[in-house]
From TrEMBL:
Official protein name in the record: Protein phosphatase
EC number(s) stated in the UniProt entry for this protein: 3.1.3.16
Keyword Cell division included in the entry's annotation: no
Family in the record: Belongs to the PP2C family.
Cofactor: Mg(2+); Mn(2+)
Keywords: Hydrolase, Magnesium, Manganese, Metal-binding, Protein phosphatase
Enzymatic class: hydrolase
Known catalytic reactions: O-phospho-L-threonyl-[protein] + H2O = L-threonyl-[protein] + phosphate; O-phospho-L-seryl-[protein] + H2O = L-seryl-[protein] + phosphate
Length: 434
């Protein structure tokens, strides 16, 4: 249902053609939750009375909720949100070894034993809504996709599961786009579909590879700041993430694996939100710094990150879209002069537990104005809270909210007479006429 009565055009003025307005759309919604910890171990002799308090002590994963975690049983796996009932997201581990120095950190070592990522004091509860422009997604070319084995004995064939450098690709492909939703990072990369008409062009491959290497760059840096002692209560030492470096590293990695014999061309926008924390002094306990959540937003292109505070029904942050000209966003990839260092917008946003972080492609924000997005999100959350049946239907509040947002965008996109932000922008840029 379209909950927004909007003007419809029945005069000589031309609305945006459906071929332009019906874009691949995806919305990733994450609610900020604290991670509840049991009492930590007593301080060791090395700690002073004013040593920073431990942040985490092996907390159990709790039931999805917009408020503090309850004592309900752990949630079931949800393939659309890439989350399971453990603190460490499924398959999110790396091989690592620790040095013996006093300031030892976890170093990247492909041959070392697998260790889980350190846990942070806060996490995202996520939901994903997907709607591809094309119903059939182009398969990835070799060597990124294994051909069928042709053997009946190969029950565990990797056919259909894209890989790079021996690792399964993170995230999910949505047409030419790629999305990722984890406990500490959400990402929406919008591939430029025009590359599908070029020889060896594959925007879907580029957007998915950039997402994969972006996620792994963040996780490798998190591991470098992990405490090498698995029994240490402070699982992750406070540090300042370098959002630009992560995206630069990802871009360079995609360029490496798509040149040479496996040469494929493409470009993609990049939009991500990384959940982290900073330590601040507490007025009640000045010797015990307390963690406060912070979201590092990175955006290059015409997708958007929006942070909403349901408690006050206000927008905390909205990233700015970037274009070279109308319908040509800034993008990373083949023949593009844009770069993460020169063009990406990076913002550190202080947030609160209960805030909602959205990463949306232009398929959503081209069809819904900002106030409509906020209204859909808040209304969906209220419906889910008021109706227990919604939990059984959608799995989680954030999944229910993401799908509601996507459905609202689809209603406008399918109506050739409805006014929309995309149509307004096209008129302003002189792209439409009588």
């Amino acid at each position: 249902m379209n909950r927004f009565p909007r003007p419809r055009l029945h005069c000589r003025f031309l609305s945006a053609p459906p071929a332009l307005r019906l874009r691949a759309a995806h919305a990733i919604v994450g609610a900020l939750l604290p991670v509840q910890s049991p009492p930590c171990a007593p301080p060791t002799p090395r700690q002073t009375p004013c040593s920073p308090a431990p942040l985490l002590c092996a907390p159990p994963r709790t039931r999805p909720s917009i408020s503090a975690p309850s004592s309900a049983p752990p949630r079931a796996p949800n393939t659309r949100s890439f989350a399971c009932s453990q603190v460490v997201v499924h398959a999110r581990t790396y091989a690592a070894t620790a040095t013996a120095a006093d300031d030892a950190t976890v170093e990247w070592d492909p041959e070392g034993p697998a260790v889980p990522l350190p846990r942070l004091p806060f996490r995202f509860e996520t939901g994903v809504g997907l709607f591809p422009k094309e119903t059939k997604t182009r398969p990835f070319p070799p060597p990124f996709l294994s051909p069928p084995s042709g053997s009946f004995s190969d029950a565990l064939s990797t056919h259909g599961r894209p890989k790079v450098n021996g690792q399964l690709l993170r995230g999910v492909t949505n047409g030419d786009d790629a999305v990722y939703a984890g406990d500490y990072f959400i990402c929406a990369n919008d591939g430029v579909g025009a590359w599908s008409k070029r020889p060896r062009g594959h925007a879907g491959l580029w957007s998915r590879l950039l997402l994969h290497f972006w996620v792994t760059a963040i996780e490798k840096d998190t591991l470098r700041h992990a405490d090498p002692d698995p029994s240490a209560p402070l699982h992750c030492r406070p540090y300042e993430p370098d959002a630009i470096a992560y995206l630069e590293e990802a871009h360079a990695a995609v360029t490496r694996v798509t040149t040479g014999p496996a040469e494929y061309f493409g470009t993609t926008t990049a939009t991500g939100a990384q959940l982290h924390f900073r330590l601040t002094d507490s007025s009640s306990s000045p010797c015990t710094p307390q963690p406060r959540p912070i979201v590092h937003v990175t955006n290059l292109g015409d997708s958007q990150v929006l942070i909403v505070r349901p408690s006050t029904r206000q927008v905390v942050f909205r990233s700015e879209e970037q274009w070279h000209w109308f319908d040509c966003p800034r993008q990373l990839g083949s023949n593009s002069t844009d770069s993460a260092r020169e063009n990406a917008q990076v913002t550190a946003v202080d947030v609160q537990v209960g805030d909602v972080v959205l990463a949306m492609s232009d398929g959503v924000i081209d069809n819904l104005w900002g106030h409509e997005v906020v209204d859909v999100v808040l209304h969906a959350m209220e419906r889910w809270t008021a109706n227990e049946a919604a939990e059984q239907h959608a799995g989680s509040q954030m999944q229910f909210t993401a799908q509601a947002l996507l459905d609202a965008a689809k209603v406008v996109a399918m109506d050739v007479y409805a006014e929309s932000p995309y149509m307004e922008r096209a008129i302003d840029m002189g792209a439409m006429y009588e």
